[in-house]
Design a protein that fits this description.
The protein is mainly alpha-helical. The protein has a domain at about 1-175. It is built from twelve helices and two strands, in the order αβαααααααααααβ. It has helices at about 1-30, 40-50, 55-70, 80-85, 85-100, 105-110, 115-125, 125-140, 145-165, 185-190, 195-200, 220-225, and strands spanning about 35, 230-235. It has a two-stranded antiparallel sheet with strand order 1-2. It is globular, with a radius of gyration of 18 Å. The model is unreliable at about 245-250 (pLDDT under 50).
Length: about 250
């Protein structure tokens, strides 16, 4: 039994690592250019995401940018306002894949992220990356516990990503206008992504915590990396988008 617990904890740890890299690299760096990573750090992030999620960066960016272009209106890839909370919470991965596999959408929304040699050799081969990741867990814990850890990671990662889109557009506080919401408890579980209303109000902000009593779990790591010279931050402070010129209430 203790070995099972260790495997479960390992799966949760891998999930948190993947969530952290998703928000820092895919979301804040690539999709919104809120950060600029040094080349070595960027390659490291791509590599770890490859073996933990198999995600193709340009596809993720295209889906997310389309979400911002059509937030909670027709064209949004995964809006609970249009499709219902349960459909997005449990079917988010299917909605994501539908848009990610549309070459025209990827070409339109991720034109600044061309396929490079690393993609051709490694990162476009999702099953290879996932096989390496799962194989590593099996080497560490044995095949049974390794598969358990991989399963815990996969289910938790998909569920929490679904929650960012489902919970984050249905339940919580709205200090800025729009359907997106803030849930600090979800931010703790998703490396800051639960502060979703803030993100839609200031999409180019590298820090998702904009109000008092809010905390972005990824920001301390970003701050340390910035001091070490590993990355640069686009701007410090709150830069609201045109559609959100002011707060509509005091954040909880």
């Amino acid at each position: 039994m203790p070995e099972v617990i260790v495997a479960v904890l390992a799966g949760l740890a891998v999930c948190q690592l993947a969530l952290f890299l998703t928000t820092v690299y895919l979301h804040r760096t690539l999709a919104h250019r809120a950060l600029r990573l040094r080349r070595g750090l960027s390659l490291a992030c791509r590599s770890v995401l490859w073996i933990t999620t198999g995600i193709k960066a340009r596809q993720w960016v295209a889906v997310h940018r389309k979400h911002h272009a059509h937030t909670d209106v027709e064209g949004d890839p995964h809006s609970p306002v249009l499709r219902g909370y349960l459909a997005v919470q449990f079917g988010n991965v299917g909605m994501y894949r539908t848009v990610a596999n549309d070459d025209a959408t990827v070409a339109r929304y991720a034109r600044d992220i061309p396929v490079d040699r690393w993609d051709r050799v490694l990162f476009d081969h999702s099953l290879v990356g996932l096989s390496i990741g799962i194989g590593g867990l099996c080497l560490m814990f044995g095949w049974r516990l390794g598969l358990l850890a991989a399963g815990v990671h996969t289910v938790t990662y998909l569920f929490l990503n679904g929650a960012v889109n489902a919970v984050g557009h249905r339940f919580g506080s709205r200090p800025y206008r729009g359907f997106a919401t803030n849930n600090q408890w979800l931010a703790w579980l998703t490396a800051g992504e639960g502060l979703h209303n803030n993100h839609h109000a200031a999409p180019t902000s590298a820090n998702l915590a904009l109000g008092r009593h809010e905390f972005d779990p990824s920001w301390p790591a970003i701050s340390v990396a910035r001091r070490l010279g590993w990355l640069t931050v686009r701007h410090v402070g709150i830069h609201l988008s045109a559609q959100d010129p002011e707060r509509t209430e005091v954040a909880a």
